Amino acid sequence: MRPSGRQLNQMRNVSFERGYSKHAEGSCLVKFGDTHVLCTATLEERVPPWLRNAGKGWVTAEYGMLPRATGERMRREASAGKQGGRTLEIQRLIGRSLRAVVDLEALGERQISIDCDVIQADGGTRTASITGAWIALYDCLKWMEARSMVKTDKVLKDHVAAISCGIFADQPVIDLDYLEDSSAETDANFVMTGTGGIVEIQGTAEGKPFSQDEFLTLMDLARNGIAELVAMQKTTVGAA
């Protein structure tokens, strides 16, 4: 039995609230159970120096956790003078995941910056960030399309979403919350596109190695879960 009472293949309740931020070109408050992340997309009429005059744009991401996103207050990384390794790794993952489904040439010489701010954490913050960031990106592109800057369907090639899977108490489970994640024998994050393409897989054995068969079981769980998330994304952006 999982601590939450969920079935092995049952994700937490997932929701998306578009237009959460008044000022951003695109925004989404995404909730995976008790993990809540605010994703905003900002259009900038510039590209990084190394991309100038290259005829294409860029999508990048920043990630952070508010001090009381967890059970005990965390010191702001800004006050420490630098970002931690975990933060840098996650924001690079978010950026890579979004660029995998963006035609950077069709975007033109512009940059879209995605900010993912964790308001409340209960496991799976990176997967929630990627899934919600896609909606913020979509709405930013729609904002641009309304001003005849781009065609959304030319820039955004596919959906992208992410989910965690792992082995907890010798059972393969999907969408681990903190209690499961903190004591899982295996923890993995899967990022996939709406058409089933694999963007990234991060898998780690926490003590006991996992077998190929166990990995394939986790992969099947992830594919099904991401298919559900993509269906929710489609419903969310199609409802506006």
TrEMBL record:
<dbReference type="InterPro" id="IPR001247">
    <property type="entry name" value="ExoRNase_PH_dom1"/>
</dbReference>
<comment type="function">
    <text>Phosphorolytic 3'-5' exoribonuclease that plays an important role in tRNA 3'-end maturation. Removes nucleotide residues following the 3'-CCA terminus of tRNAs; can also add nucleotides to the ends of RNA molecules by using nucleoside diphosphates as substrates, but this may not be physiologically important. Probably plays a role in initiation of 16S rRNA degradation (leading to ribosome degradation) during starvation.</text>
</comment>
<feature type="binding site">
    <location>
        <position position="86"/>
    </location>
    <ligand>
        <name>phosphate</name>
    </ligand>
</feature>
<comment type="similarity">
    <text>Belongs to the RNase PH family.</text>
</comment>
<dbReference type="InterPro" id="IPR020568">
    <property type="entry name" value="Ribosomal_Su5_D2-typ_SF"/>
</dbReference>
<keyword id="KW-0698">rRNA processing</keyword>
<dbReference type="GO" id="GO:0008033">
    <property type="term" value="P:tRNA processing"/>
</dbReference>
<feature type="domain" description="Exoribonuclease phosphorolytic">
    <location>
        <begin position="10"/>
        <end position="140"/>
    </location>
</feature>
<keyword id="KW-0819">tRNA processing</keyword>
<dbReference type="GO" id="GO:0009022">
    <property type="term" value="F:tRNA nucleotidyltransferase activity"/>
</dbReference>
<dbReference type="InterPro" id="IPR036345">
    <property type="entry name" value="ExoRNase_PH_dom2_sf"/>
</dbReference>
<comment type="subunit">
    <text>Homohexameric ring arranged as a trimer of dimers.</text>
</comment>
<dbReference type="Pfam" id="PF01138">
    <property type="entry name" value="RNase_PH"/>
</dbReference>
<dbReference type="InterPro" id="IPR050080">
    <property type="entry name" value="RNase_PH"/>
</dbReference>
<keyword id="KW-0694">RNA-binding</keyword>
<dbReference type="GO" id="GO:0000049">
    <property type="term" value="F:tRNA binding"/>
</dbReference>
<keyword id="KW-0548">Nucleotidyltransferase</keyword>
<keyword id="KW-0808">Transferase</keyword>
<feature type="binding site">
    <location>
        <begin position="124"/>
        <end position="126"/>
    </location>
    <ligand>
        <name>phosphate</name>
    </ligand>
</feature>
<dbReference type="GO" id="GO:0000175">
    <property type="term" value="F:3'-5'-RNA exonuclease activity"/>
</dbReference>
<dbReference type="GO" id="GO:0031125">
    <property type="term" value="P:rRNA 3'-end processing"/>
</dbReference>
<feature type="domain" description="Exoribonuclease phosphorolytic">
    <location>
        <begin position="160"/>
        <end position="224"/>
    </location>
</feature>
<dbReference type="InterPro" id="IPR027408">
    <property type="entry name" value="PNPase/RNase_PH_dom_sf"/>
</dbReference>
<keyword id="KW-0820">tRNA-binding</keyword>
<dbReference type="InterPro" id="IPR002381">
    <property type="entry name" value="RNase_PH_bac-type"/>
</dbReference>
<protein>
    <recommendedName>
        <fullName>Ribonuclease PH</fullName>
        <ecNumber>2.7.7.56</ecNumber>
    </recommendedName>
</protein>
<dbReference type="InterPro" id="IPR015847">
    <property type="entry name" value="ExoRNase_PH_dom2"/>
</dbReference>
<dbReference type="InterPro" id="IPR018336">
    <property type="entry name" value="RNase_PH_CS"/>
</dbReference>
<dbReference type="GO" id="GO:0016075">
    <property type="term" value="P:rRNA catabolic process"/>
</dbReference>
<dbReference type="Pfam" id="PF03725">
    <property type="entry name" value="RNase_PH_C"/>
</dbReference>
